[in-house]
Amino acid sequence: MITLTDSAIAAIKFALSQTCEPADGLRIKVEGGGCSGFKYHLGLDRESRDGDAVIEAGGVKVYVDLASQPHVSGMTVDFTTGVDSPGFIFDNPNARENCACGKSFG
């Protein structure tokens, strides 16, 4: 369903190691909004919920809720520390268009 690059796995592991609240993985959710119609919402989460897809890669878990699954199927998640746009990068084959910031799609 989702592929994580080594850089994304390292970033998730780092975030999990730094959180004060207990968390076991990263939750990726698609919400309405952003400049292109949909936006990605990321956050650390303790566990999966009913209907979640759970992706395990490189020792990390990613949780995707049922409503978001069709929007992210086949997506690759990367992470960059580049000056131009540091953070997670989403290569989503379901996106007809992407916002210049890379955080929303349509």
List strands and helices in order, with pairings.
Layout: E1 2-4, H1 6-18, E2 25-33, E3 37-45, E4 53-57, E5 60-64, H2 69-72, E6 75-80, E7 87-91, E8 104-105
Parallel strand pairs: 1-6, 2-5
Antiparallel strand pairs: 2-3, 3-8, 4-5, 6-7
H and E string: EHEEEEHEEE
Trace the largest sheet across and list its strands: 4-5-2-3-8
Structure class: alpha/beta
Structure annotation, total helices: 2
Low-confidence stretches: none
What is the general shape? globular
Instruction: Describe the sheet with the most strands.
Output: 5 strands, mixed
| Strands, total number | 8
Helix percent reads 10-25%
Radius of gyration over alpha carbons?
A: 13 Å
The rounded distance between the terminal residues' Cα atoms is 19 Å
What is the overall pLDDT average?
A: 90
What does the model show?
This protein is an alpha/beta fold and 106 residues long. A 5-stranded mixed beta sheet has the order 4-5-2-3-8. The chain has a 3-stranded mixed beta sheet with strand order 1-6-7. The longest helix has 13 residues. The model has no long low-confidence stretch (mean pLDDT 90).
Give descriptors for this structure:
alpha/beta; 2 helices; 8 strands
Short overview:
16% of the residues lie in helices and 42% in strands. The chain has 106 residues and is α/β, with parallel strands linked by helices.
